[in-house]
Request: fold
Amino acid sequence: MAIKPAGTLYRGKVGMWSWVLHRISGVGIFFFLLVHVLDTALVRVSPEAYNIVIESYKTPVVGLAELGLVGAILFHGLNGLRVIAIDFWSKGTKYQSAMFWIVIAVTVIAVAGFTPMHLARVFGH
Amino acid sequence: MSVTIEVPNRPRTRKQANWEKYGWLFMRVSGPLLIVLIFTHLVVNLVLGDGIKAIDFAFVAGKWADPFWQVWDLAMLWLALIHGTNGMRTIVNDYAGQVKVRRALTTTLWAVCALLILLGTLVIFTFDPCPAGASAELLASFCPAQ
Reply:
């Protein structure tokens, strides 16, 4: 009887979806980085120019988007450590699935802790 | 179940520098550094104090008046842009079918990367935390205009 090769490292299940998430989060962070270098460069134009643009980071819509940004950065960074462990640690492939769920858990807990504090600042006053 | 791996019919014989390997290594070296740099950046700017509410020109001036944060942000700028651009290059290589399209996208990526590294580096090192003629209420408390 043919055995389906599910559960290989990069085909199907956690291995594949973590790879997909890593790409999507990476692309998202990349485009934010381009914008963020440009908005920060406004400090060299004038205090007024920088303050006007940075105010938009404190609006409700962008404030909510920042939760997604922080979550994407946390996931991408922690999953990157998982990728390094898979590549360099002899038991990496054995525990890759467990490590993925640890990455998800830490990301969710950190974002859950950050969310009320951040939203109080964005929606407060 | 056993997996048979075919013998590669064209082993690598070229003796030039293996840039693909250096790129692969760079991602794994810069990654952990970026975790330290960016996670700290997020805690200092978004968690401590008043978080996002406190960020304005005076806040940036306060940080960049200190060489420590200048070097910190410089390292973040260079590593993040090169890491991100190389990641985008990998994705372009995977999905861009035509050689012309791939070359155009890759060239654009590295051009944008170089431009933003240059811009960011100049901004960090030519930044004046207390610019002359600026209204005093926008400046940091350590500025003489205050």
